[in-house]
Each structure stands twice: as C-alpha cells, then as structure tokens.
Amino acid sequence: MKHLQITPIIFFVLCTSIIIRAQQAYYGSDVDCSIKGTTTPPSPYYLYTCNGYHLSCQTFLLFNAQPNFTSVSSISNLMSLNPSKLAQINKVGEYHKFPSGMEVIIPVNCSCSGQYYQANTSYVTGDDDTYYSVATHVYQGLSSCSSLASENSHDPNELYGGLELLVPLRCACPTENQTKDGINYLLTYPIYENDSVYDLSQRFKVSEQTTASANGLTEADPVVFQGTTILIPLRTPPSSNQTIIHYPIQYPPPGSTPGPGPPLVVAHNSKGRHPLWIGIGVAFLFIICAAVPIALYLLRKRAVGNEKKKRKRCVLPKDVLEYQAGAGHALKVFEFEELEAATDNFSSERRLGVSVYKGVLRGNIMAIKETFKDSSKEVNILHKLNHFNLISLLGVSSGLENCYLVYEYMENGSLKDWLYNNSGRLGNWCLKQRIQIALDVAEGLDYLHNFAEPPYVHSDIKSSNILLNGNLRAKIANFSLARASEWKEGGCAITKNVEGTVGYIAPEYLESGMVTPKLDVFAFGVVMLEVITGKDAVIQLEGKEKLLSTVIMCMLEGVDDGDKLSDFIGPAMRDDSQIDLVIPIVKLSVACLNQDPGSRPSMEEVVSILSIIQSDLQSRVML
Ligand SMILES: *[C@@H]1O[C@H](CO)[C@@H](O)[C@H](O)[C@H]1NC(C)=O
Ligand SMILES: *[C@@H]1O[C@H](CO)[C@@H](O)[C@H](O)[C@H]1NC(C)=O
Ligand SMILES: *[C@@H]1O[C@H](CO)[C@@H](O)[C@H](O)[C@H]1NC(C)=O
Ligand SMILES: *[C@@H]1O[C@H](CO)[C@@H](O)[C@H](O)[C@H]1NC(C)=O
Ligand SMILES: *[C@@H]1O[C@H](CO)[C@@H](O)[C@H](O)[C@H]1NC(C)=O
Ligand SMILES: *[C@@H]1O[C@H](CO)[C@@H](O)[C@H](O)[C@H]1NC(C)=O
C-alpha cells in the first residue's frame, strides 16, 4: 500500500508546477478519496481550477449513455437539466432512448464556487453506492470522489441508500489566452477505453497541441485514463454529428468494489522515473484485488443473462404477426438467435450505421436494424406499403430487450454518404443519375401521399434516410416518424412533439406542428438541392453556418441568377453544357421550399416536371 500513498504526493508536486503555466492540469490516474488529507487545494483531483477569463460560462459535458441512463428523461434527471434542452441539442425527440455507449451532449452553466469551477446536480444514492462509484461509474469521472466527499457531510464509510448528494460536475471556462485564440468552450470529455488525445483532437477538429496545452499535458503522445476527464477546446458548441457510439463499458456492479475503490491505472507523469515501478506495483495489486470481484461479477452476469433471456421486452404488433400467419404475407418472423448468427453477434464489422447491421439470413443479404423505441408503428405502416421506391420490410424479430426490423439490403448505403463520402464516384457530376435519384424519391413520396391507403406523411425526409441500391436507384427508408395523413383541404393533423432534422424542417411545422404532405415536399426540396449541388443541407459560408436552401434562394433572387449559381455548383460539374437543365431543377426545388405550404407543388406535380426534364436530357444524349 505504500506506493499508493506516494503517488498523490509526487503528483501534487508535479501538478502544482503545471497549474502555474497551464490552463488546467490533467490529474493522471483516478485517485481514491484518501487523497483528501494529503493535498491542499487547489488540486486537480477535486475539480478544475477557477482561472478562466470569466467566472461563469455556458459550456458542455459529454456523457455516455449507460444502462439506467439511456433515455432523455433519465439523463436530464441525472444532470438536473430540462429534457427539452437535452433533446434539442442532441437533435432527438424528448422520448428518445440512446443506445448504450452513445455520447450525449450535456449543456451546463458552469461557475466559480470558491477555488473551483463547478456545475451542480444532485443524485440519490442506491444501497451499494460509494462516493467513488458515484463519481466514477454513475458520473463516469465527470465528478470526483474528493469533491463529493468535501461537498457532502456524510461519512464516506457510512453511505446508505436514499441519501441526496450534491454532485459537483467538472467544467471550466476558457482562459484569457484561449479566448484570444478563439476558443469559446471547453468541453469536459470523460475518457473512454482506448481514447487518445490525438484521436479526440481529430474528431473535434482542434490541434493536438491546443488540446494538450489546455490540459497541461506536455508529452508528445500523452497517456490518458478511463475514469478521468480532459478538456477539449472548441470554437463552436459541440454538435450531435460529432458524437459517436462506443462499445459499452460494463462497470462492475456497485458493492463489488468495496470502500473508496481501487486506483484504476498507472499515474501519468512527464518527468519522474518512479511511475514505472509504481505502475507495476499498482497493476499487480489491481490484478489481485480486481480478479476476485471480476470473477464473481462474471458469474453473476451469466446468471442474470440467463434470467433475462426468459422475459422478453420487445413487443411487436399482434395483428401483423397474425396477419402474417394467415395470409401468406411476405413478412417473416426471425428467431433472435438467427439474427445473432447472421451478424456474428452484432459485431462491429457488420455495422452499417448506428444500430444497423448487415447479415446473411436464409441465403439473402439483409439489413438488420435494432430499435430501442416501440417499432409497432413502423412495422404496421411498412408491411402495408409496396412500392419500388420505398424500402421493403422483409421481417421482424424480438430480441432480449429490443426489436429488430429486417430490410432489403441497399448496396450503396445512404444518399448522404454517397454524396459526401464517395465524391469520386457520383461526385464527379453525373446529371442523369442525379435526376434519376430525385425522381425515385419523388415517386416514392407521390405514392405515399396519393396512392397509399391511408395516405401517409413520412415527416423525416433527408439524405441520410434515402438509400441507394446497386444500380443507384433510390428508396425511402426510416418510417419511424411517419404518420397517417388526416389531411384534407382546410384541415390538418397537429402534433405536439416536434421531431425532425435541422435543415429539412418546414417552417409551419416548427411554428404549429402542422403535419401535411407539404412537410415532405419541403424536405424533398432540400434533398433535391443536395443531390444537384452535391452540398450538405447545412453549409459553412463565410465562416457562418447557413441553410443550403437559404443560400440558393438568395442567389436566385439576384438578376444574374444563372451565373452565380453555376459558380456555386460549377466545380462539381463534368459538363458545363448541362447547366441549362440544372436551372429548372433548382427552380423546382425552390418552389418546394416556399414558406407558404399552400404554394408548394404537390409530389404529383414534382414527378411530372422531373420526368419532362429527364426525357429532355435523354433526347439530348441521343442527338
Ligand atoms: C438500474 O436501476 C435499478 C432500480 O433502480 C437497479 O436495481 C439496477 O441495479 C440498476 N442497474 C444498473 C446497471 O445500475
Ligand atoms: C443557464 O442559466 C440561464 C440563465 O439563468 C438559463 O436560462 C439556462 O437555462 C441555464 N442553462 C442550463 C443548461 O441550465
Ligand atoms: C453549487 O453548490 C455549491 C456548494 O453548495 C454552492 O456554493 C454553489 O453556489 C452552487 N453553484 C451553483 C451555480 O448553484
Ligand atoms: C498568455 O499568453 C502570453 C503571450 O503568449 C504569455 O506570455 C502568457 O504567459 C500566457 N498566459 C498564461 C496564463 O498562459
Ligand atoms: C482497446 O484496444 C484493445 C487492444 O487494441 C482491444 O482489444 C480492445 O477491444 C479495445 N477496446 C475498445 C473498447 O475498443
Ligand atoms: C456537423 O454539423 C455542423 C452544424 O451543426 C456542420 O457545420 C458540420 O459541417 C457537420 N459536420 C459533419 C461532419 O457533418
């Protein structure tokens, strides 16, 4: 145990020298609460030091969804946040459930309280909680054991269930120098297994040097440890498209790490020679101490796993299953074990998207989507629809906890990926294919609005929900937000829970929640612009974020509309002589984007105009 007590002292000496120079000091290994007696504040083991330009700021933490904290409501409760705020910044609905291991952005108000920055929340203890387990497991290192112990008067050895703890969360505001460099936020990031400063800097688009210096890290490739946090300096608030899903960490259940908990890893240190030995000592102790609880935990987990298998939670619509049994419908019901085998136990190599996997089922390649929300609606809708331009639902399955929907496999992935990641292929402008894709989507929507019985509004048309098959023919996917259209002239369905994606949402929907087919027409207008210009629905222009639709509409308002537009999309075009065919398509998109839903064309009209443009192009090619 001697080594363990030396570590903090060496650390303290090293860190205090760093504090003087750096923005904040990285505190290396996760230390137990006994450090309380050996350091005098300010110490990075507590929280981040109050040394910023401002005494308070709005900032962000990242939290990884984990069992019991996957829903918007449970995470906002854990962080004392308004659920609608959390939903908004993560671009999800208020009833959304994040997959375990998914990063969730937590906005907080961070302020100086004495020597440390903190954002307060509260937590009611469970029977087996310790300050250590609350800081490290529940809050993933976003709080610290030492600061929990100092903010709460309960004896660390006598915590029991039902106590309300004040939980100070680690946060910090930029220093004067950082502010001058354009850094506006310091994102508190809880280190995950295998994270490196280099990878994180890449992902958040900051230089490794800037990240390292924000954390007082001086080495070229500093080691960072799970259970600790680092600050990532950002110019703009973090965006939900920067978050990723990690392989979920299985924390041992509380109680199997008695007392203040073991120091997890070797100390990070830039100068000392001792840490190697300390490291070996710690690692050795750790192995001894951890082996027994881990073995017990694994045994227990297996027992729990077996129990779980017996109570399935996924519910599939009964009538669909009965219908299936009766009428020889194509929808198949797969055994969960079949899906496991088809996807190598849902291995990451088989992953196509956040929770979509590729698998070979009964001899055919299929796409298997794991869903966390009630999917009976989507199943009910899709099994009734049958159109070449709508994705086919081939089967369903209920797993241990989630439902699985099995779709036809689309070789070329989403239109979004195709447009932005494969720019070598379609990127080099092939007008014929682009028009075909737009027409495919238009025909799918026309069917949905005008021929399906009852008619439906998709409500979430965007380039990532349009999939391309091997021949680059497009199909509309993801019907989780679709609803029956009650719409008649003069009437409409109203929805309270506005869901959708920034850049594609029609103005009347944001204002009043009006659901009409014109909602899809608007979103289709945006997709058509993306297809034609090869640009994202939200773009950076002159350093600002702008909607693609707004930019194009401004260009068309000018007198020299053709010139400006061809400058804008020109670089992607293979053949300048086709620009005169592009203009009517852009104008059609702009008509779809009319602020007044009544003035937008119907999908039927869109289809007929696009067909004319398509045959125009074909006759030109023939000449
Ligand atoms: C989730 O919460 C339930 C009840 O509050 C508790 O029994 C269970 O241990 C928790 N699970 C985890 C993984 O924390
Ligand atoms: C931060 O404080 C402001 C002003 O008091 C408040 O409007 C806002 O909701 C707070 N934000 C969070 C994330 O708590
Ligand atoms: C957080 O809690 C501490 C300790 O109770 C208190 O001093 C501080 O004012 C609180 N901060 C905020 C922003 O409420
Ligand atoms: C801020 O930058 C200036 C000039 O580069 C430097 O002299 C000063 O030490 C820096 N301050 C801090 C606190 O790092
Ligand atoms: C971390 O890296 C090790 C070795 O490369 C690997 O075995 C392990 O699966 C990785 N863990 C995660 C969560 O990716
Ligand atoms: C992420 O979204 C922001 C706007 O929220 C946008 O500026 C940025 O380009 C997007 N990045 C990617 C990789 O899509």
What's the quick description here?
With 623 residues, the chain is α+β, with helices and mostly antiparallel strands.
Task: Provide structural commentary.
By secondary structure, the protein is α+β, with helices and mostly antiparallel strands. The protein has three domains: 8-242, no CATH class; 318-408, 2-Layer Sandwich (Phosphorylase Kinase, domain 1), CATH 3.30.200.20; 415-622, Transferase(Phosphotransferase) domain 1 (Transferase(Phosphotransferase), domain 1). 37% of the residues lie in helices and 16% in strands. The protein contains 20 helices and 20 strands. The site of one 2-acetamido-2-deoxy-beta-D-glucopyranose has 5 residues, from strand 19. It is found in: Cell membrane. Residues 187-232 form the LysM domain. The chain crosses the membrane at residues 276-299. GO terms for molecular function: ATP binding; protein kinase activity.
